[in-house]
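User: Hey, quick favor. My workstation is busy. Could you predict this chain's structure for me?
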Amino acid sequence: MGRAHEVRAAAMAKTAAMKSKVYSRYGKEIYIAAKSGVPDPDMNLTLRSKIKEAKANQVPADVIKRAIEKAKGGSNESYDSLRYEGFGPGNATIIIDCLTDNSNRTVAAMNSCFNKSHCKMGVKGSVSFNYDNLGVLSFKYEDEDTMLDTLINADVDVNDIEVEDGEMTVYVAPADLHKAQEAIDALIPDCEYSVCAIKMLPQEYVTLTDEHDKEMWQRLLDNLDEVDDVQEVYHNVEM
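Assistant: No problem, here it is.
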């Protein structure tokens, strides 16, 4: 089914709760970008790029504004980026990226999630070597040749392009995500993205067939979804 299937399936599965999670994620990331420099996108390239990414993911303007105003207000909040890797049933693997202001709270939450689902946390690098770190952009478009020419002319490092059922998914070097977005926006005015983010994509997928394994895996995902510190979850299980 390929990577495009995984991306589309994730996009189609969005609910109101998942949107709230996305808004919270970008709110934190925009706040961090604004705090790391001048809280003005015209003078802060990192902030400007993060705002473009947030808008591509349908994050409301008021969420973006609140995050910037919070940074301008001199908030003392600070966040650390933490990554956890682990193993589930049937050769399932998982990567969890977190932003936290309390690492002790976060690691306790991760241990609880894994223990309750009978899964196992791994050490750093035990899972991620089987994943590719790529910028992913998914949108309605079908002309692969024109898209490839556009991206190459924009000096974008293209990893792959897939088209399925009228949906194009472009994979680029992570550093080129926003450069690719600008090139696509110029080619396709008012382009609407179902995905526009840097992701860890598994090199191989697995399918769980045992009902108990499926139940434990879903329990892990559900428990992780309830942890506010969790920003992104990547795994190799075809749902």
